Amino acid sequence: MSIAALLIATKTHLVTTLGLDPAKHIDALDTGQPSPFVGQLYYVVHPTSWESTNPDPADTLDETYGLSVTITQRSAVAPRDKHASEIFLKAITGLGRQAREVMVAVHLNYDLMNAANALMTGEEKLCEPLRFRGADASPRTVDGDWFFAEADKASGMVLEVRFGGARRIQAVHKHGGADVVE
Questions:
Q1: How far apart are CA 169 and CA 172, in angstroms?
Q2: Residue ranges of the alpha helices (H) in the chain?
Q3: What is the DSSP letter of 40?
Q4: N or C: which end of the chain has fewer CB within 10 A?
């Protein structure tokens, strides 16, 4: 499946490019919420879209895929306490830097696209790479629920970086009324 290949390839690429420990700093999951017991800084690669771009897919399947990388930073104190401004400015500076690194590593990266293609079966592969689509302008505050803890026992900041436009075109042939996908 193309989206699974993109998730795996993106995770692997970020591990290599950003020097992340795959056991401690990054995962590929169904949502941006990290697994329990993550460290101070954690990246989650997750799917966001799988769409048809062909208004009349009689002979081909023309699809685009999207994913996001959600970056979570734990906070030692509640973000809404008396140090709120200081914590926010540190978070937006740090998470902004990490978001920029993710953008540069993934945007229009043909090596990443080719790594995803190597994981796919069939002849039709991705023909266009992921493109940067946007990011949160400001990190959002999360409480302990985000970390699978009691709401008042943990807190942090989260920023999502979004990508889309990875394109795959696949031929579909008609044989005796049945569709055959190559």
A1: 10
A2: 2-18, 84-106, 110-119
A3: S
A4: C
Q: Contact, 32 vs 147, CB < 8 A?
A: no
Matching residue, tokens 């709120």? 84
| Rounded Cα–Cα distance for residues 112 and 129 (Å) | 8
Q: Decide if 42 contacts 26 (C-beta within 8 A).
A: yes
> Do residues 127 and 168 touch, judged by C-beta distance below 8 A?
yes
* Strand segments (E) across the chain: 26-28, 41-52, 60-75, 126-128, 131-135, 140-143, 155-175, 178-181
Contact 37/1 with Cβ under 8 angstroms? no
Phi-psi region of 176 (alpha: psi -120 to 50; beta: other; left: phi over 0): left
**Could you read off the pLDDT of 104-158 as tens digits, one per residue?**
999 999 999 999 999 998 878 999 999 999 999 988 889 889 988 888 766 888 9
Question: Cβ-count burial of 169 within 10 angstroms (0-12 exposed, 13-18 middle, 19+ buried)?
Answer: middle
* Beta pairing partners, 135: 161
Kindly report the pTM of this predicted structure. Answer: 0.87
Are the beta carbons of 156 and 72 closer than 8 angstroms? yes
